[in-house]
Input
Amino acid sequence: MSGQEPIKELFSHIPVSPHALSDPDTAYMVINENKVLGHRTLPGLEVRTTQLPDGIKAEIELKPETVIAKTVHFCFGMIPEKGIQRIVLRIHIGKNSKIAVQAHCVFPNAVDIQHIMDAEIQVDDNAEYSYFERHIHGNTGGARVYPTAKINLGESARFKTEFELLKGRVGVIDIDFETTCARNSVMEMTARINGTGNDVIKIRESGNLAGEDSVGVLTSKIAVRENATAEVNNRLIATAEGARGHVDCKEIVRDSAKASAVPVVEVRHPRAHVTHEAAIGSVDSKQMETLMSRGLTENEAVELIIQGLLS
Amino acid sequence: MKDKPIIHDINMNFDAGMVYAVVGPNGAGKSTLAGTIMGLSGYREYKGEIIFDGKKIDNLRTDERAGLGITLAWQEPARFEGLTVEKFITAGAADKTPDTTRKVLVQVGLDPDEYLGRAVDKTLSGGERKKIELASIIAMKPRLVLLDEPDSGIDVSSLENIFEAINEMKAAGQTVVLITHSMAVLKQAEYSFLMCHGTIIDQGTIDKISGYFEKKCILCTHKNQPEKYEKGKSIK
Output
């Protein structure tokens, strides 16, 4: 394959035109296996990559006072059926800066693929970092995805992340994110995953609301069917005055699938407030019968309800 | 209580293109009747038969009954997390074009630009969800519509939209059954059934039934005890 062919193949699976990469104002980085196929940086945004035997280490720095107007695209691809891809990310978002990243993790032919992400993210005071991770997997359930991240937010910083499987079977997804929030900072971590077959979904997200008036929301929306399993262990700890947080977990279970949710909330300051809400169960019968009374079959109704939950 | 029927001795006919009302106090069995006609789970154990277009539909599932053109609007509509108004309406629409989806929202008094992208969830009031449910029913173009308490949660100014929609359904040859204990809704019908304690105790013109309902049922001190109903005296 020439340099352009893997890029074309990877982009054929994601809802972003490869032409977006020709926009001089759009920064991007495309990685296949352990090779950087292409990248563009912008003033104030520096990307340094190092090839590892089984992946890439990328050090990404957004200089202070830099605002990147257009969404930055990262594509982490594995075109082969088998292999390991380790992505080590060291991200530093400078003071008063702002950036939004869409990471497209594309394993369309996965039979036995491991994608391991090890991220350390520092978001300095009053900076804003949004990270949307969209996965495209094959249909065999052969992808195993292990994203871990430690995120540190400075004062008044904002961090938002969403993990979503857009297409294909989960295989194994084992998310482990931990965020520590300084004064007035805000973090939101959301995962939306639909498991079937013998897929395994594990989510451990935790937030330390250590700064005064910091805010954290952990949201998990999961649907499991057939023999899939889901475990959600989300934890919010509020130790500072005025810290506020919410843990929200909704899981729909069908067939022989199993789901569990263990929301842990700890409050160690009398003026902090953290709530949690967990609902696990089958599809709501009233929702289903409403749609069936419009002519949808049971399966069509369930699909639509799950689509809504995960949207 | 297990063997005690919730509704019994029911014999009703609905003609095409007519608007009917089923009136009665809370607990009379009106919603149970609607659920039974729709074939909802929990309402499928009964003796007797329901015939639609000359064919028995007792063994048909809810979606199969809907496929024949029967549908139901709930008294308290369901909430759907994340499901947009647009997707909800088009899911069962006979015509799934955006123009139709917008048109039915306008018919129930909602601005499509404001509502199409919103989720049918707790961010909408009960009245808004009620209107959206009615819009989804108009889009479906059913033949028999069961509207359970169509005015509940609806503000007075919006009631006219609901009544206009009912008239348009009638004009299109659709049969509408209004389940209600509201006099304003009852007056939209052409023929009415009076229900008490799980059975139809009388039926007839709106004047006849509404007069009795207003004077006797609303003030009734022995609700759902039809043995005390002065059959044949007050109504006829």
User: Anything to note?
Assistant: Chain B touches chain A at residues 38, 40-41, 61-63, 65-67, 70-72, 74, 77-84, 87, 91-92, 119, 133, 136-137, 140 (CB under 8 Å). Chain B has nine helices and eight strands.
